[in-house]
What does this fold into?
Amino acid sequence: MPEWDDRALFEKLLLDGFQAGLAWIIILRKREHFRRAFDGFEPARIARWRAARVARLLRDPGIVRNRAKIEAAVRNARAFLALRERQPSFAQFLWQFVGGAQHINRWRRLREIPSQSEASRAMSKALLAAGFRFVGPTICYAFMQAVGMVNDHLVTCFRYRECMMLRSRNIGSGS
It folds into this structure.
């Protein structure tokens, strides 16, 4: 189901940044601990973190202990808050890169699925310009898949059909 909640989108963007270079299962297994360690992914709280908090997180085995990624999370929280002052919502800012609607691909083989797209490159460029870090085009594409901006399920996958049915129900209801 496509995600439109600003805080949930922020959380998923940070987690995609932490996932860079790692297997997703690592992040999934640590997700609840990340939520506790990162103050429920509340940008206003994370934006106030200082060096002592970063140092404490670097000793926390429940998360990915990467200084650059933790510092990027703090910077991203600050960038999120600044962007929200200029935009109606973080969701609207992000969804503009897919024209406000889920992009549905019709892949038949896994090797057809790209690691990035024109939209993810544009999103990455805009996020970087807004002060975000760990938001390269490949991370942005994975994020777009995770939040339902892009449906990259193979046409033979049961989830592809489920997503299509959900989409048609939402379109029909005016959502």
Remarks:
- The longest strand covers residues 103-104.
